[in-house]
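Q: I'm writing up a methods section and want to include an example of the input and output format. Could you take the sequence below and give the corresponding predicted structure tokens, formatted cleanly so I can copy it straight into the document?
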Amino acid sequence: MAARRTKPQDDLISDMVTLQAHGVPIDDEELRTNLQSLLVGGNLTTTDLIGNGVWLLLTHPDELAKLKAESSLASAMVEEVLRYESPVAMTSRVMSEDRDLAGCPMQHSQSVFTSLHAANRDAAVFEQPDQFNITREKVSHVAFGGGPHTCIGAPLARIEARRAFSLLFEKYPNMRLAEQDLTWRALPFFRGLETLIVEV
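A: Here is the clean output for your methods example:
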């Protein structure tokens, strides 16, 4: 950040310190935290989003056929991957006040863990929640959190995933899964395959 203040470049850090210099109320610690979050969001979770999506499309050939027939479904497909098999399984929050939710009392300053996967498969919100459907209407998932806690890397992850899926299936239209035993990574809070072997 100090180097970018002295010699700005065409990058996010320069943009952020410039905004800071123009009075945006963010200190260096907040800036570091946000940049680190973007780095994590731009690597592990985006990799898992793409891997999970390739696996879903190859195991749901009817949905892949829809995407190949209508490339404009790419954005909707990414949202459905995020809903159905999001790369972040759960998150935590600290209660800002005492409250009761569905009969469960929660106190101010208490840590609360929530399952994003459960919320994204909620039958009260989604019709046929356990069906992977890239033409689903109203995919109001919480894969990126929400409100002031929405993932800072969400827009970038969406762009990268759309581009990756387009290029992969355009370049390798006959891609299929190789014979393999799938292993989901044993990493708390995250959902992604350790490896995904395909044949092209």
